[in-house]
Write a structure and sequence with these properties.
This is Reticulon-4. By secondary structure, the chain is mostly helical. About 80% of the residues lie in helices and about 0% in strands.
């Protein structure tokens, strides 16, 4: 799956495919709110097995009645190679390692107050997260993230001019407020890099 297909998925270019992915993701997350992850995995596996076993038996009965030799209905999938290549694992492990190392460096910079303004912003963000955490659990936030992921891009695409106008106004006001605060409080001026 490349970046273009992910964008097409999020912008609802193929409504059927996006509907299936969105519905399945939402169904899985909502199921996890009611059942444990072990139960959800077991129910999904049982449902999938019910479908595949029923189809296998149905095709076997049809072949016996028609005296045909069509073979196994899932032969094409059984013959496919599903092994993950070593090159693919190395490629993604290098990408993950790069992101992990960058995250560690940034956290070190923030916690050891390399830049006071950035560390204060991080502290405010963590303070806000304490309130978010008190209101929502992680699963609720994941449900909201999935809904937002599939709705915000298409809403933005349809109302881009109005949204850009108001975001520009908000951005301008926030920059003015931050500049005023930095000018009034000594020590909060950003380092020039």
């Amino acid at each position: 799956m490349d970046a273009r297909s992910v964008v097409d998925l999020l912008y609802w270019r193929d409504v059927k495919k996006t509907g299936v992915v969105f519905g399945a993701s939402l169904f899985l997350l909502l199921s996890l709110t009611v059942f444990s992850i072990v139960s959800v995995v077991a129910y999904i596996a049982l449902g999938l097995l019910s479908v595949t076993i029923s189809l296998r038996i149905y095709k076997g009965v049809i072949q016996a009645i028609q005296k045909s030799d069509d073979g196994h209905p899932f032969r094409a999938y059984l013959d496919k190679d599903v092994a993950v290549s070593e090159e693919l694992v190395q490629k993604y492990s290098h990408v993950v390692l790069g992101h992990f190392n960058n995250t560690i460096k940034e956290l070190r910079r923030l916690f050891l107050v390399d830049d006071l303004v950035d560390s204060l912003k991080f502290a405010v963000l963590m303070w806000v997260f304490t309130y978010v955490g008190a209101l929502f659990n992680g699963l609720t936030l994941m449900i909201l993230a999935v809904i937002s992921l599939f709705s915000i891009p298409i809403i933005y695409e349809k109302h881009q001019v109005q949204i850009d106008h108001y975001l520009g106004l908000v951005n301008k006001n926030v920059k003015e407020a931050v500049t005023k605060i930095q000018d009034k409080i000594p020590g909060l001026k950003r380092k020039t890099e």
